[in-house]
Write a structure and sequence with these properties.
The protein is mostly helical and 157 residues long. The chain has a single domain, classed as Four Helix Bundle (Hemerythrin (Met), subunit A). Helix 3 packs antiparallel against helix 4 and helix 4 packs parallel to helix 6. The protein is built from 6 helices and no strands. It starts with a helix and ends with a helix.
Length: 157
């Protein structure tokens, strides 16, 4: 049997089904992104903690801006990585369905743990941040490559 014989739904029914699937995927992913976002308040608190307990509280005339340099760098990099991660995951939801959606919470958990490892490594030594950075960046790049492949595949076929 061909695909046309198996699926006798109208075009409107197929369109509604696809819309429902996309809405469900985005809703699940958006809920799971709370896990990825959990690190952001910790990063903001890290900057706040240093500023509140040192002369860095006055960034203009305090003369201690160097004290918040590392926490600011960690927060800035985390914000950049979160944006890349968020876009990659939302795009990935378009290509996953059913049981394969469990990849999204796994990747979000990896992101959170990798960001913590990045902070701990960076606070120890700037050269020690590499493992946490790679653990955040490489899964995101893999998702971008997968999504690019799927987009290319859909264009070709």
């Amino acid at each position: 049997m061909s695909d046309k014989q198996k699926d006798k739904r109208s075009w409107q029914e197929k369109k509604a089904s696809v819309r429902k699937q996309i809405a469900t995927s985005v809703a699940i992913s958006s809920t799971v992104f709370v896990v990825s976002y959990l690190y952001h308040p910790m990063g903001i608190f890290g900057v706040f903690n240093v500023r509140g307990n040192t002369n860095a509280i006055d960034p203009v005339e305090g003369g201690s801006e160097n004290l918040v340099f590392v926490p600011n760098q960690i927060l800035r990099n985390t914000t950049e990585q979160f944006l890349l991660h968020f876009i990659a995951m939302m795009t990935l939801t378009l290509f996953l369905e059913g049981a394969s959606m469990k990849v999204i919470p796994i990747l979000c958990g990896i992101f959170l743990v990798a960001r913590i490892v990045y902070q701990v490594g960076y606070m120890a030594s700037a050269m020690s941040r590499g493992y946490g950075f790679a653990s955040t960046f490489l899964p995101t790049v893999a998702v971008y490559l997968f999504c690019s492949f799927r987009i290319f595949q859909n264009i070709i076929y």
